[in-house]
Amino acid sequence: MQMQSKQMDMPLLTPFKIGGKTAKNRFVLAPMTRQRFEDESGTPTSLVEAYYLQRAEAGLLITEATNISATAKGFSHTPNMYTPAHADAWRSFTDSVHETGSLIAMQLAHAGRLSNQRVLPAHQHPHAPSTMDVNYFSRMKNAENVMEQVLCSPAVEMSIEAIKTVHADFCHAATLALDAGFDFIELHAAHGFLIHQFLSASSNKRNDLYGGEIENRSLFLLELLAELAKHVPLNKVGIRISPVGKYNGVDDTEDEALYRYLVKCLAKLDLAYLHVSEPNWNGSQPMSEALRTHITSTFTGCKIFSGGYQFQTAEERVKSNTVDAIAFGRSFIANPKLVKHYAENLPLHEVRKEFLYDGAQIGYTDY
Ligand SMILES: Cc1cc2nc3c(=O)[nH]c(=O)nc-3n(C[C@H](O)[C@H](O)[C@H](O)COP(=O)(O)O)c2cc1C
Known about the structure:
- By secondary structure, the chain is α/β, with parallel strands linked by helices.
- It has helices at 2-9, 46-54, 84-99, 160-179, 194-199, 214-229, 256-267, 289-298, 311-319, 330-334, 338-343, and strands at 16-18, 21-23, 27-29, 60-62, 66-67, 103-109, 127-128, 137-141, 147-151, 156-157, 184-189, 237-241, 246-247, 250-251, 273-277, 303-306, 325-328.
- It has a single domain, classed as TIM Barrel, CATH 3.20.20.70.
- It is built from 11 helices and 17 strands.
- It has an 8-stranded parallel beta barrel with strand order 3-4-6-11-12-15-16-17. The chain has a two-stranded antiparallel sheet with strand order 1-2. A two-stranded parallel ribbon has the order 7-10.
- The site of flavin mononucleotide has 22 residues, from helix 10.
- It holds the Pfam family Oxidored_FMN.
């Protein structure tokens, strides 16, 4: 009884429905690349598992961006999901998460042009919708084992055949991830990764079917979803988009129309959820209320919003009944027991930025 009244006062502690399942509360761990994996395997070590389990008070955990193939890699020390051995290695990880009562999604990603020959097979050039001047960076360890930002290598324009291969790689990775016990897979269509590179006019300069008008730029993603539906139930597929922002050399700040169209298309599919990364956390202008209303009223399925949320703003969003859950990023890094901090009104710790992408257990499992 006491718990019930506490939940009513604290809307983020109530459960929500997602893809036919129930998440225990409305806290989501946002996907965050932490570069603590071993390059050779790209599967969870005990350190990685400890990091996620510390945060398994959340209703839903989303893994950091996970490579769907060797050619999808953009950053060193990131996870992989493209062989049966990867799926086998992830299975005990998903079992451990489920024992806590949390759900877990794997974010599947292709970095596209956001890569460097140093981390790609046979030092090949990264793949991208178009070849353009390089003014964006990736992050990897150098020969002295020091993590550094590196200018990306010039990309080659993807052929139609290469596009089909990437679609097949996403489907293969999704099948493996669900087989490994993940509740959902999340397509990373945000933050300047490959799918976003196709969506945005700033990075897609193609003259064929996949470039030009909004409908054409959206085709790479919409065809991928159609392919995915042949391999996995779409109610196990979430998608993350980052409307009207500026990330990793991709700039959509003036393109509300793209996201109006895209969300209309996504609303017709029975997806597990739509995850919206809002633009302001990364220095762009906030999303207009008109676009927010368009997204929340058009996509009637489960919605997760993220980017710069505090407990109070998260509560307001959930109370308005327009959003189901809020994904927290940096505050969840610095406060593994974020749900407890909310429930018991405890003060929050600050994130140590110098260890976001490096530092083994420091700034990772020692908060
Ligand atoms: C260290 C770090 C790594 C990130 N890696 C990813 C990633 O792999 N995939 C992704 O979609 N977003 C990534 N993001 C963005 C976060 O998911 C989130 O949207 C962002 O931190 C804003 O939320 P916050 O204000 O609650 O931190 C990353 C952010 C940080 C700080």
